[in-house]
Amino acid sequence: MVFQPITILYVVIVFSFIVTSVFMFKPKGDERLHLIFFWLAVALSVLVTVVNATSHDASMTNKVIAAWAGLLFSGIGIIVRMAAGKTNAVANVLVMVSSLYGVAGYLLLN
Hints:
- The protein has helices spanning 5-24, 31-54, 61-69, 71-84, 89-109.
- Helices cover 80% and strands 0% of the residues.
- It has 110 residues and is mainly alpha-helical.
- The chain is flat, with a radius of gyration of 15 Å.
- It has 5 helices and no strands.
- α1 (5-24) packs antiparallel against α5 (89-109), α2 (31-54) runs antiparallel to α3 (61-69) and α2 (31-54) packs parallel to α5 (89-109).
């Protein structure tokens, strides 16, 4: 069984996302560390969304739009995080949902 490079990239991104999520919810720690992992999770959700959206044919407009719509969760999470000014579980969950949405979209629609 031969894996395509995009699938290997996707597995690496998902593994990175899992590690990031664990550290993002680490109960005690430095606020700067939480902030770093939050923005890393945002970057991974964007990367997952880009891979998901660009993996569809141009003729599949509905699937491409649905893939990009996953970034709405991250956008709302960023707004919640900025409004709170500190670590916020709701913002972390929204960013995680965005990544999970991208992963599910890639695995189910391809």
